[in-house]
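Recall from the previous chapter that SMILES is a line notation for molecules. Here it describes flavin-adenine dinucleotide.
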Amino acid sequence: MFVIQQNISLKDYSNFKIGGKARYFLEVKSVNDILEGVRKWRETDIESNFQRKYFVLGGGTNVLFNDAGFDGLVIKNSIDEIRMEEDLLVVGAGVLMSKLLDYCVENSLSGLEWAGGLPGTVGGAVRGNAGAYRGETKDKIVEVDSVNLDTLEQKTRTYDQCQFDYRTSIFKTTAANEVITYIKFKLTKGKKEEIESLIEDKKTKRKLRHPLEYPNVGSIFKNVPIGKFTKEQIKQLSQYVKDDPFAVIPTAKINFLAGLSGKRVGDAKLSEKHTNFIVNLGNAKAEDVKKLIEIIIKVVREKFGIELEPEVMFVD
Ligand SMILES: Cc1cc2nc3c(=O)[nH]c(=O)nc-3n(C[C@H](O)[C@H](O)[C@H](O)COP(=O)(O)OP(=O)(O)OC[C@H]3O[C@@H](n4cnc5c(N)ncnc54)[C@H](O)[C@@H]3O)c2cc1C
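With both inputs in hand, we obtain:
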């Protein structure tokens, strides 16, 4: 059963702890909740000039909500189901990655160990093809189900049709008006202890490297493919080249070399611990984060001639 709520603080749903209120907020636990909830919202009587827009929210670990909030309907995906269908693992898009990994350990399923410590939901990870430690969400996907929020049409896409690429998929481009509902993974049977130990290893690495003591949304910018650098620069930076999932220079390194470590606007700071994470020291506003992002982009452009591309999703 669903309830359409009003004036819900988005700060509480953002890992950044930043953002105003959602005018309308719908938490969905099934495909039916989406269909019925959106239909009901469309029947809601609002001013004639009101533009009906949607935003799909997962775990809020990769979004920056505006200080003014969101003047539309936020659909919080809480489809929280995991089940086996023959040899495929069917996962609701609202399942937390951590819960999915617990299930994998419990059932000795191998293939997602790279995601140890990755926050957020599986749906959010699919949309942005989240990845780390040489793994990407796409790697074990067979099919993805979704609902088009304009037509309420349900669709199933094969792996190829999802158009996965570095930190992107069709759900970020031409199918951005769809909410991912279920994902089918093909995992392999492995040894429980080995799977668990690989996951724990990634969690430990993250705790050591990431400034988890402050609210943040992970890496603010995508890493930069080495093809974007001049031959001379590649020679100078060769010691930093990382192959994940292809040859890149980590943006954390670029920001550090540009002298941006610890750069601050209001309570938004580029962390010294990981120089591709912006942390909220307490009362950061979305505007502070955006200004800091602009400064970083400008300084890196001037210093390296490189255009940094934000990974975080801005919600206006
Ligand atoms: C400490 C930390 C470490 C991180 N490390 C990594 C990392 O190693 N690699 C990496 O890639 N990312 C990383 N991230 C970023 C983030 O965790 C991932 O991108 C995550 O997969 C986002 O999932 P989410 O559910 O929180 O998505 P949200 O933040 O809620 O949403 C992100 C985007 O996905 C869309 N979305 C969410 N759910 C759905 C759905 N069901 N259907 C359609 N669209 C949807 C939203 O509309 C939004 O545009 C990190 C973040 C933090 C805070």
